[in-house]
């Protein structure tokens, strides 16, 4: 029997740095792309509440028990509102993973953080301390950070949920939803 | 070569009758369920702007040329804000169809309209004048009204976009999105 794997894919909406907060969407998807549910919350632009808001959003929902993985688009939401993957995994009990299209450029990130954030040092240390794995795809590679799962299993699940390009469906769908709701029309790629 | 059929499926979010307006979501889906885009707008509860808002939402988007059909969940949005299918079809150039799970009970509808709407007569005449087709599914039947397409072609497209149950994916996905965004968690079936 084929296993019914479910993933929650998370992305935020477009925003301007003067906005106070930003819409965050979680799509619950059964492999490879059957939409079963949508969750939503808001997090502060450049704030500190992303991890707690995600934990609340998922744990308070009826989807808390089902997913085999949480996937987030990048390591932060709403600018530099960092996602603590280890805390997300420990508190929800669901292995957690962030995906980036580009290898993090820590020189650039440090510079941007210094400019925007008084408390940049702690944040920078957190973002730059975890292992980053490179996964090859049919297109360009992706870069992932993981908690609660090993990289070979993470890679297997990513592939199960990827249809076109290199972004898994749960994240791609959340990107389209968040952008379509906030702008009136979804644009571009996550 | 397999034709790449696209449909826009439309549903509104949950609302209370004291709300002024309601979120409306349009999902652009390639058969059977690949999400390509999301559009959104707002219409007045029990208002008169549903048709014009849908025409604007679709015509101003980059998806205006692609879909072979617009599918709406029921004949109205935001309570009794009726969708004029003929106008929607004529102005967008896209054949339009509304789907209901239940055979319209015109006695009940008339009663509800009389209670809520001063201008109920015109609205009731419009809603009760079009042909209603019953389509059998593996589950219960659905009831549709159509403009710009014949019923056999409409039925073929509905089946192409239906995966589970009797509601085609573009409407089912818009229902999940609208409800997940407004409530924080999607619930129930469209």
Summary keywords:
seven-stranded mixed sheet; alpha+beta; 34% helix; homodimer; two-stranded antiparallel ribbon; 190 residues; globular
Shape of chain A: globular
Q: Biggest interface and which pair forms it?
A: A-B, 27 and 27 residues
| % residues in beta strands of chain A | 25-35%
Largest beta sheet of chain A, briefly?
Answer: 7 strands, mixed
How many helical stretches of chain A? Answer: 6
- The helix/strand class of chain A is alpha+beta
How would you state the average pLDDT of chain A, rounded? 92
In terms of quaternary structure, the protein is homodimer
Strand/helix succession of chain A: EEEHEEEHEHHEEHH
Order of strands in the sheet with the most strands of chain A? 3-2-1-4-7-9-8
Tell me the number of strands of chain A: 9
> Using only CA atoms, what is the Rg of chain A?
16 Å
- Poorly predicted regions of chain A: none
- Roughly how many Å apart are the termini of chain A? 33 Å
Helix content estimate of chain A? 25-40%
Element layout with pairings:
The structure is a homodimer of 190-residue chains.
Chain A: E1 6-12, E2 21-30, E3 34-44, H1 50-59, E4 69-73, E5 76-77, E6 81-82, H2 85-92, E7 96-100, H3 106-116, H4 120-129, E8 133-135, E9 142-147, H5 151-160, H6 169-183
Parallel strand pairs in A: 1-4, 4-7
Antiparallel strand pairs in A: 1-2, 2-3, 5-6, 7-9, 8-9
Helix pairs in contact in A: 1-2, 3-4
């Amino acid at each position: 029997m084929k296993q019914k794997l479910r993933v929650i894919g998370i992305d935020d909406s477009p925003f301007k740095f003067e906005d106070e907060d930003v819409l965050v969407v979680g799509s619950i998807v059964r492999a490879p792309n059957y939409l079963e549910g949508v969750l939503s919350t808001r997090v502060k632009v450049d704030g500190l509440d992303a991890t707690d808001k995600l934990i609340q959003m998922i744990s308070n929902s009826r989807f808390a028990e089902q997913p085999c993985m949480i996937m987030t688009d990048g390591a932060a939401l709403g600018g530099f509102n960092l996602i603590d993957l280890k805390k997300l995994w420990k508190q929800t009990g669901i292995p957690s993973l962030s995906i980036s299209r580009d290898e993090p450029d820590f020189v650039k990130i440090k510079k941007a953080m210094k400019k925007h954030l008084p408390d940049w040092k702690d944040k920078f240390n957190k973002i730059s301390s975890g292992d980053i794995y490179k996964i090859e795809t049919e297109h360009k590679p992706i870069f992932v950070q993981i908690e609660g799962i090993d990289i070979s299993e993470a890679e297997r699940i990513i592939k199960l949920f990827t249809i076109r390009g290199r972004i898994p469906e749960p994240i791609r769908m959340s990107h389209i939803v968040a952008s379509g709701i906030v702008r009136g029309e979804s644009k571009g790629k996550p």
